């Protein structure tokens, strides 16, 4: 049988040539920019050696991310450069490279910058001097998402420069360990800002309330470890999520002007108890300001604040949207805390999940135990509650009486999880 002849058609050769083509380089420029924006900044810069065409592509990345991964790579480079391994020289080299790379990336950037993230490592020397220059440059670039973080929490925090309030197109702002001063009277607000995250920020002259009121479309506020605020008055018709973890002494909180909140978390380390002129620190006013809340997270100290005024058996206005309650650090031998807990869960007719982390100390057991024994479990049934999770239980009598109260009050309860705490907790 004669051998078969293999014919190479023109279509085969054309397919071969297609396989050799640089498909990625022929992608639309906006797609290439998107790909580079998803890469670590170091890898994006390295694409400049691929070809003449790719030489300056990295300069137009709309998202500049100098995060922890960038810092780790920079630390390795600085260690190689410091051949003598002298700590002071290594620190200077790292600080110089950090300043130089970020400053040049900004100054050489010809296009728009939509997102800028910098995590300043823990330098032992003075603060990075170019931060204000970065903010000034970004204020002219219509920056939309800005993250500035100092990992080291110094006593004297970096003060934001006046040009910061010229970043009028911001939609997302995250600051860590800065000092936030009131803007000038000419400042009309961040009209597009919908997410605000402040971590370890010192708020000068109690400027937080006026700042929030100047951001009309805010949907989410996260405050952790901030100082300078003792009275929180939160406003915003668009606000849906609020998270406050206060280290300073909290005296009052008002949410009456934020009617659309659906998720609220409040935890405090210190509270001021016994203030007569404190109209916003009672359970009734706090819950009345949350008509649409679905998830509520509180800690024991804040419950003490809410229980300054007498707590009723059940609130007159029921939070009908409330489905999940999470409580941390609850002392089951503290009468005020337990009164607030019972009032809160009884007042939520559609409560489905209850999570409580106990932090019980052996005090006033008789008073709380007597109160729990007198509770009528049939008067206000928890008809929708199907999941209860209790953690760090220490075998105190009031804890078991509270468990008994939940069992008798919850006809639809399907799962109850109880985890005992450590013996020495």
Automatic annotation (TrEMBL):
Pfam families: F-box, LRR_At5g56370
Domain F-box/LRR-repeat protein 15/At3g58940/PEG3-like LRR stretches: 132-356
InterPro entries membership: At1g61320/At1g61330-like (IPR053772), F-box-like_dom_sf (IPR036047), F-box_dom (IPR001810), LRR_dom_sf (IPR032675), LRR_FXL15/At3g58940/PEG3-like (IPR055411)
Bilayer-crossing regions: none
Domain F-box: 24-55
Protein name: F-box domain-containing protein
Species annotation: Anisodus acutangulus
Upper lineage: Eukaryota, Viridiplantae, Streptophyta, Embryophyta, Tracheophyta
